């Protein structure tokens, strides 16, 4: 594992509010190995439109991050929410943001004795800091098809696309989290393919495997939810969950109860259904406890959303690690695991797959699910990243 390196990571999520994501997992491990890390909370890709029901909640959440200023985690990671203007469609705002970000980051670099850092960018709007911090190397992590996301921000897709393309061109190493975009962009651009790698998502295996490795008592807020329980944890956004699918299933199987756990900006329409139970966001440490109370883990993502179709949700690997049966809607990333998990091909097929999971599961199937992800841990991914950085920094 590399040591004594300075790393500045511009993440696409906030450290404080989201369940641990790929940047969080990897930076924790690099910091524990003896590297100096500044973790920059999401500078966003712009505010939602004025008509969005998520606007007020997202502003409040970001103000909460600003209120935490600069904090240092137990691993020694410096977490910061820098002040920026969330108006990336404006060239003037982007110039101001570059000055603001560079000024704030350089002050932190002086305060925490960081020189010649490795710059890790995982959000296109950080493009303008590239080349401004004296970095030794630039790593660009592509987690999504960014220009297809017009659901939770109002920045023009062509502006996001231009930022993405420039970072692809400037980066010394490009990591793709999802194989669909990795395959498409590396096939289209040979120059990118020469420096691109698929950095697959991973899992904190022992943590999630404890859901079935030990006996749990139902948490107080789930003990009253009747069985069978279809459990989901992750972001609970109106555009990220197929609410029409959930309504359809609820009409035909009103005795099945949906349990939704995660951060949401605004209430969902389906929360009015008697068999939908939103339990709020829970600590990462308690996820196995709640997963133990699920009968089936589900991922009811919409199949008609281009942005979603390029996703590589970590939660599917976490579901598999629990050993619980898993039913998902079709996502390119996990098509190769069809059979290990159950992939539905329509609303009624979703019902059929859940019924099969409830009636035809076994210990052998549980073991097979866990073996699929047992070796794909975040420790292994951090070692992979460490080796790539070491090679990147070798004198040519």
| Biggest sheet descriptor | 8 strands, mixed
Q: Which percent band covers the strand fraction?
A: 5-15%
CATH-derived architecture of the largest domain: 3-Layer(aba) Sandwich
Number of helical regions? 14
Category from helices, strands and their pairing: alpha/beta
CATH-defined superfamily of the largest domain: Glycogen Phosphorylase B
For this structure, the quaternary state is single chain
Mean pLDDT: 92
- Kindly report the spatial arrangement of strands forming the biggest sheet: 3-4-2-1-5-6-7-8
Number of strands: 14
Please tell me about this protein's structure:
By secondary structure, this protein is of the alpha/beta class. It folds into two domains: 6-202 and 377-393, Rossmann fold; 205-373, Rossmann fold. Helix content is 38%, strand content 14%. The strands form two sheets. Strands 3-4-2-1-5-6-7-8 form an eight-stranded mixed beta sheet, sandwiched between helices.
Quick recap:
The chain is of the alpha/beta class. The chain has helices spanning 22-32, 55-68, 91-111, 157-170, 179-188, 190-193, 205-213, 243-252, 287-292, 306-309, 314-322, 347-359, 363-373, 378-393, and strands at 6-10, 36-40, 70-72, 78-80, 118-121, 137-142, 173-176, 196-198, 229-233, 257-261, 276-278, 296-299, 326-328, 342-343.
Secondary-structure blueprint of this entry?
Elements: E1 6-10, H1 22-32, E2 36-40, H2 55-68, E3 70-72, E4 78-80, H3 91-111, E5 118-121, E6 137-142, H4 157-170, E7 173-176, H5 179-188, H6 190-193, E8 196-198, H7 205-213, E9 229-233, H8 243-252, E10 257-261, E11 276-278, H9 287-292, E12 296-299, H10 306-309, H11 314-322, E13 326-328, E14 342-343, H12 347-359, H13 363-373, H14 378-393
Helix pairs in contact: 1-14, 7-11, 11-13
